[in-house]
Amino acid sequence: MYKCEVEHVCAQTGARAGKLHLTHGVVHTPIFMPVGTQATIKAVLPRDVEVLGAEIILSNTYHLMLRPGAERIAQAGGLHKFMAWQRPVLTDSGGFQVYSLSKIRKVTDDGAVFQSHIDGARHVLNAERAMQLQEAFGSDIMMAFDECPPAKADTKVVQRAMKRTVAWLDRCIAARTRQDDCALYGIVQGGVDFALRSQHVEQICAREGCEGFAIGGLSVGETSEELWATCAYTAKQMPAHKARYLMGVGTPEDLVRCIDYGVEQFDCVMPSRNARHGVVFTHDGKLVIKNRQFFADDGPLDPDCGCMTCTTFTRSYLRHLFVAGEATCATLLTIHNLAFYLKIARDARAAILADRFGDWQVQTLARLASKRWAA
Amino acid sequence: MYKCEVEHVCAQTGARAGKLHLTHGVVHTPIFMPVGTQATIKAVLPRDVEVLGAEIILSNTYHLMLRPGAERIAQAGGLHKFMAWQRPVLTDSGGFQVYSLSKIRKVTDDGAVFQSHIDGARHVLNAERAMQLQEAFGSDIMMAFDECPPAKADTKVVQRAMKRTVAWLDRCIAARTRQDDCALYGIVQGGVDFALRSQHVEQICAREGCEGFAIGGLSVGETSEELWATCAYTAKQMPAHKARYLMGVGTPEDLVRCIDYGVEQFDCVMPSRNARHGVVFTHDGKLVIKNRQFFADDGPLDPDCGCMTCTTFTRSYLRHLFVAGEATCATLLTIHNLAFYLKIARDARAAILADRFGDWQVQTLARLASKRWAA
User: Fold this and answer.
1) Annotated catalytic residue within A146, A254, A267, A302
2) Of A51, A56, A87, whose CA–CA distance to A307 is shortest?
3) Which SS3 state, helix, strand or coil, does residue A143 take?
4) Quick check: B321 contacting A, CB < 8 Å?
5) Do A346 and A29 meet the contact criterion of CB atoms below 8 Å apart?
6) Is A260 annotated in the active site?
């Protein structure tokens, strides 16, 4: 069922446009995947996520295994049916959240033993369990179980994580029982060390059992320049005929730059989390809705955005909702921020198909960097 | 512009069905008015409130005068435009919230001087100001400024409130500058004392300057039986050719009973506030979504409800969202609870028009009183 089709490589840059054929639909790349951690995009109903044009969302195995549990989701007919989302879903392996959220954990060559951050219950997560969970969810794209060290980790820690990630990938491939209705992506680690990245690409991307590959271990504390350089260096060594997914990245600027490097899948909590704190992404940079400058501003959040929020409500009204602590503010700002990220991806795709991604990138980065909304 | 049309009085009961012709549209009665305190229904977007079939909403003058202020709303083109709600709006006078929310207040025969519960700023609210504010909002129905004592107030306090309420109504009528594009409702007080109610109906409902009348001073601490008896006693003395609005009431059972007494307009925070706490109204009584009994329940909240929540999501999923603390839970449960209240009003209307409201009431009250969802 899974097929990664590279439609076009931009003549000006290395940016790629393509299609991912998945069990629950076709995804046009480059694509941004909104994050629905606990089987819901925070503050936005699935119907509205569809209207935004999101073709695939991400959900988190760690959260779902703890609550409501994979067995419940499987009984309910899988994650799509449980959450009433008909389009593709990518799930992570749960590893990253074990490292960042669980209270007490022990990571060995076998995997992780940890206590739930919710109720302290003891859980095991390893390669085999990560496959079992994601197959129970019915994910369109499953991520291999990996170890993701922080940016400032010692080389030895990074190397141990790389070794485990390769061994765990082989165990994921062996443990997988569903071949035809889902995909498995392996994850390249190696921190911001080019030599380690090369070495790990060579190992991970040699695995035939993977339909696609991801760049992991970024957006974990390194600088933007390190992120961009590592992504550029790593992506170009990855197989051209398979999908490239940059995990957990990033700002609109990060997307625009990394699409240039030949990456086509992205996810990040940034648009939705920022929305809940009143930070709005626009073509002209970030806008802080609570600022007094918007008190009497009857214009839309972003005049170049066609989302429901921008076509229906004013900055003044949205500021009022934010200041008044109304939940509809989070909903409306999240709708806009996701619309904006999805538009960036769609505009990038159009520019790639027209062989003018380079020009578009220069213009887009210049506008994003403007300080138009500085208070 | 305003016209109250009594279409039909049920042959079995005193229940009335009619139409309110307002500047922003026609309202079919009996009607429940969802509460949008701060220029938004909490957790639900105006588009979804429309889809629910809400023909009129209520908004609170006290909150809007403090934030964002009547001047801002007027500048933005009025409340409808500010909040992107095209249908009718009823606003209260602000008095009730001054008594219940403001930190420091002094109420005299002139009106109220109070400190904002938000920032402590000093404000004046009296008959003239209440009219000025509601006219600035562009309300379809304005409420007269009244004094609403608690249920356990001394007779002397109730009598003083009645006297002030009459005097303030005359000042409201005199202060009103917009006659053609809005309505003014006077408010009957008198606690749960029948003699006082009779006396106040006679005084208030004699005022020609009012397009409709409300029963105030209920749902302020009295028993359900006192509420029903007082409503029944008061409503039947009110003019038959004008609208009757029971303020701040109540449970589904209260609606079903008070429609019988010839009341046709209701508002209450109960459906939306309960939804945010996971309490769901169904035809078979209340359901507490967090209860373990719904963990693996893949049925709809209420099989007899056609709302988006009931036709799309399961109890199990909604319980998951509630337990996980997801904002989409409040949205989905509020949508259902409002749909349920609106359906009660619509079903009541259909029963009245068919001269079988009495039968419908008996069946409906019996189902509502069932303990089907008792944990």
Assistant:
1) A267
2) A51
3) strand
4) yes
5) no
6) no
C-alpha angle A75-A79-A80 in degrees, rounded to nearest 5: 120
* Type of residue found at B166: V
Side by side, the strands of the sheet bearing B3-9 are: B3-9, B16-22, B25-29
Contact B331 A332 (CB under 8 A): no
Distance to chain A for B42, nearest Cα, Å = 7
Q: Most A CBs within 10 Å: which of B73, B307, B328, as the mutation test of the A interface?
A: B328
A47 interfaces chain B, CB cutoff of 8 Å: yes
Q: What is the pTM of this model?
A: 0.98
Of B38, B84, B323, the CB nearest to A67: B323
Q: Are strands A105-107 and A111-115 parallel, antiparallel or unpaired?
A: antiparallel
Whether A92 is catalytic: yes
The DSSP bridge partners found for residue B114 are: B105, B123
Pick the residue of A317, A329, A338 with the most B CBs within 10 A to test the interface with B by mutation.
Answer: A317
The pLDDT of residue B102 is above 80: no
Q: What is the dihedral of CA B358, B363, B368, B372, to 10 degrees?
A: 170
> What's B54-102 look like in SS3?
CCCEEECHHHHHHCCCHHHHHHCCCHHHHHCCCCCEEECCCHHHHHHHC
* Domain A3-268 class, CATH top level: alpha beta
Q: Cα(A89)–Cα(B325) distance, rounded to whole angstroms?
A: 22
For the stretch A118-143, pLDDT in tens is 999 999 999 999 999 999 999 999 99
Tokens representing residue B151 in the block: 């249920």
The model's pLDDT over A336-356, given as tens digits with 9 standing for 90+, comes to 999 999 999 999 999 999 999
Least reliable range by pLDDT among A223-232, B42-51, B114-123: B114-123
Q: Do B331 and A330 touch (CB under 8 A)?
A: no
Chain A residues in contact with B67 (beta carbon < 8 A): 320, 323-324
Contact assignment for B328 to A43 by CB distance below 8 Å: yes
The DSSP output letter for A1 is: -
Sequence-distant (≥ 6) Cβ neighbours of residue A216 within 8 angstroms: A146, A148, A187, A188, A189, A247
| Domain spans in chain B, listed from the N-terminal domain onward | 3-268, 275-369
Test the B interface: residue of A35, A37, A40, A47 with most B CBs within 10 Å: A40
Q: Which amino acid is at B5?
A: E
Structure tokens at A315: 């900055």
